[in-house]
Amino acid sequence: MIIDNxxxxxxxxxxxxxxxxxxxxxxxxxxxxxxxxxxxxxxxxIDWQDYHDEYSPERVDPCPDYYGYYSLIEGNKVIGDKMxxxxxxxxxxIIEEFIESIW
Length: 103
Description:
By secondary structure, the protein is an alpha+beta fold. The chain has helices at about 5-10, 15-35, 85-100, and strands at about 1-5, 45-50, 70-75, 75-85. It has one domain.
C-alpha cells in the first residue's frame, strides 16, 4: 500500500504515524528538488506491506514475512530492500543529503 495521504497513515501502527508523516514531507521535498532539475517527472513514494507473505510448505529454510515493513518505490521500481521504520528514516536522510550535495 503506497502511503500518500493522511487516511493511509491512520492504518499504520500508532507509534510510527508521526515519523511517517514527517518522512512524507521529506519525500515531497526530494521529489520537488529532483523535478526542478530533471526533464521528467520523478515520484518517489513510501510503500508499506499490509499483507503477510505466503509460506510454502516445500521450503526448508525460514520463510521471511515482511508484513509491516516499508519500501521506497519510484514508479514501478523498488529502491533498496524491505526496511524497518528506522532503516527507512536513514535511507531517506541519505537520499536527501545526497541530493542537497549535488544541487
